[in-house]
Amino acid sequence: xxxxxxxxxxxxxxxxxxxxxxxxxxxxxxxxxxxxxxxxxxxxxxxxxxxxxxxxxxxxxxxxxxxxxxxxxxxxxxxxxxxxxxxxxxxxxxxxxxxxxxxxxxxxxxxxxxxxxxxxxxxxxxxxxxxxxxxxxxxxxxxxxxxxxxxxxxxxxxxxxxxxxxxxxxxxxxxxxxxxxxxxxxxxxxxxxxxxxxxxxxxxxxxxxxxxxxxxxxxxxxxxxxxxxxxxxxxxxxxxxxxxxxxxxxxxxxxxxxxxxxxxxxxxxxxxxxxxxxxxxxxxxxxxxxxxxxxxxxxxxxxxxxxxxxxxxxxxxxxxxxxxxxxxxxxxxxxxxxxxxxxxxxxxxxxxxxxxxxxxxxxxxxxxxxxxxxxxxxxxxxxxxxxxxxxxxxxxxxxxxxxxxxxxxxxxxxxxxxxxxxxxxxxxxxxxxxxxxxxxxxxxxxxxxxxxxxxxxxxxxxxxxxxxxxxxxxxxxxxxxxxxxxxxxxxxxxxxxxxxxxxxxxxxxxxxxxxxxxxxxxxxxxxxxxxxxxxxxxxxxxxxxxxxxxxxxxxxxxxxxxxxxxxxxxxxxxxxxxxxxxxxxxxxxxxxxxxxxxxxxxxxxxxxxxxxxxxxxxxxxxxxxxxxxxxxxxxxxxxxxxxxxxxxxxxxxxxxxxxxxxxxxxxxxxxxxxxxxxxxxxxxxxxxxxxxxxxxxxxxxxxxxxxxxxxxxxxxxxxxxxxxxxxxxxxxxxxxxxxxxxxxxxxxxxxxxxxxxxxxxxxxxxxxxxxxxxxxxxxxxxxxxxxxxxxxxxxxxxxxxxxxxxxxxxxxxxxxxxxxxxxxxxxxxxxxxxxxxxxxxxxxxxxxxxxxxxxxxxxxxxxxxxxxxxxxxxxxxxxxxxxxxxxxxxxxxxxxxxxxxxx
Length: 903
Description:
Elements: E1 5-11, E2 15-22, E3 30-31, E4 34-39, E5 42-46, E6 49-50, E7 53-55, E8 71-73, H1 75-83, E9 88-89, H2 92-95, H3 124-142, E10 152-157, H4 163-175, E11 180-184, H5 185-197, H6 201-208, E12 212-220, E13 225-233, E14 238-243, H7 251-267, H8 277-294, E15 302-307, E16 319-324, H9 325-336, H10 366-377, E17 386-390, H11 397-410, E18 417-418, H12 427-439, E19 453-458, E20 466-471, E21 480-482, E22 488-491, E23 495-503, E24 513-515, E25 521-530, E26 537-546, E27 552-558, E28 566-571, E29 580-581, H13 592-606, H14 617-629, H15 637-647, H16 658-672, H17 681-689, H18 702-714, H19 721-735, H20 752-760, H21 767-781, H22 787-797, H23 812-822, H24 833-841, H25 853-865, H26 870-877, H27 884-891, E30 900-901
Parallel strand pairs: 1-10, 10-11, 12-17, 17-18
Antiparallel strand pairs: 1-2, 2-3, 2-6, 4-5, 7-8, 7-9, 12-13, 13-14, 15-16, 19-20, 19-23, 20-24, 21-26, 22-26, 23-25, 25-28, 26-27, 27-28, 29-30
Helix pairs in contact: 3-4, 5-12, 7-8, 13-14, 13-15, 14-16, 15-16, 16-18, 18-20, 19-20, 20-22, 21-22, 22-24, 23-24, 24-25, 25-26
């Protein structure tokens, strides 16, 4: 079916907007009102479709006109979410860019309290898909014979969305049956300006600013702030010059800042009690409504903000305060848009804002971020001479005036030309239509190509991170760049992974090899492939391309293949660990002959039986490997993995004797620890995980069980949720107290304390099961003084996971119960008490994870009393990033040389 319409969809953090025009380019875009439920039994078509989902529970029922059950979407969802805490999914778009959680797991609504009414939960990608599915339903009903799936659709995203967030957005659209190109929102705003201003507007703008206009597009949405720089020339050409970094900073942050003030008024400043997550979310929604009224064109002097209670007496239980117009303007202006100098830079210190599950920017001063962006991409003393505003916040004249005043200050008082902005909530969708039409020849297209250059990591002989350029800055969409003159050897028949980097500053040509250093290079999620073939390795050349959705497309072409062979590679959408940085491998200091000798020792021990075997091969193996390779702590990451790859194919050999079994698990766990760090570790962890169900062939040997459990602890970070849950399923039968009602085996597994430590390290197990294990351990502390019990509780109750998604963290109430018990213990006889207290009371900035002020203060007091230094205490008093040393402490031993951990 041919496409009749160009359709633009602005899938916004706060609202979703749809615009369209005929593909012939004869008319401007028009907004499609989206039919949605606005009250029980009432449907209305509105230009704004709130990007909100409200969960129905129990016997609740709503007319499912649009196929949205068990959710209500849009206007009524937002209204109900303001009345009933904990059942609203809002700002789901922001979660698509949050690498610290599993964006394909049902984690929203975020931060429900323990004991809350059970509600349906949804993943960020499915939330986006449901919104788009609703849009498709409305479109198809309004355009019989021209389904949305067959139209020329453009979907907008923040310019700062990385490759994974863009890929997830595309996947959400596909799940809704929509095939769409992506367009960055600041570009969409500029396309809308060009469409409304007319064909001569670009040349006129350039002439009015001295022959060339440097236009700063400032887009402050509900969840993100995007800045882009566009050059307009007098001959009518326009090109994008630069795109700003990802800033999770926008209207939501302003709502949270106002909610914090209102919370102090409702509860009392300095009080220990804080609102729970659901009620704080409700208060933030009330503050958003008040902010929108107070920053409108004809605002009242003040607006009431109400916080409803629970149960049937909602109105009577409501608490109220008021926000004044000048108060809101001052908070927004002074906090988010201060008048700063051109050399201002974002501050690293933590502000007063409390993050709400999302990793918001630490410095909320948008003008400081703009100043840093301009300084990074323009020569000293050169500043934008025009600006285009987009986003609902700029409805407030004082805010727009403040940005103009700040930019004029940089220019020595010279005024900045403000491009006429239309309705800021509709312009992006209309601009997406203008772009869709320009792609088929109806209108001016922005030039400039890719704002970033892309690189693929390569091995280096001098231990530096190095990479080869595969797509240069300025590359046009669809152009294939082949890295000629450089060939690469690629493993065949197994999963391989390419480390990727992007830079908006590096001016490298295709094939150039550069050092990856400094903040100008961003590490992307890797690209993975499994190339089939009859040889162990093939020689390939790399091909890079900027795709239609604005992401890197990478392929490998096999050299001298007949017929030609070419393989498309795909992004891994789930990183092995949000805190892991797979490095360029550190070259082995061990001569290849020594490595071969070590592999021969392993094969002699676990390979096919030999007639010249002495019977002591297993007992002597570790000592012999140390003799050949040096001390174990000096084995590099690459050496460890090579030994693992020589060991595991002969895993059956572990069954020959108890010594074989013990040494196998000792080496397997040690050589693949911590389960990530090498491009092939995902497949190694999967291979090892298959062996868990086989248990031990010599189950009566205590030392075998010890090494078995230690191996799984060492590799926990590389094990997926399925394997970790299987380990718990087996171990729980041995660890659970009799009162738990779990059927116990006749003969318990040996080395239960090692099993306990391992299970406490399994962070990808469901939070409720992790809390259950903690309750069993807590029960044992009543009669046992084993320090390992509190070390395990500290791991289970940690506010910041070492490697897993934040949604696996146990509930705040659970951690507080454990801390209350720990505070009653005598810490002098518990060397692990300090570490456990620090882990469970650590500040994250996420209200759904942080313990209360009362508990934090008690922990702080106790830590101070036992002499904990001020630097470590900071983590309980304020948000402090987890450093590499602390992360390494989690693993309990030295990590392989060459492995680095970052946040």
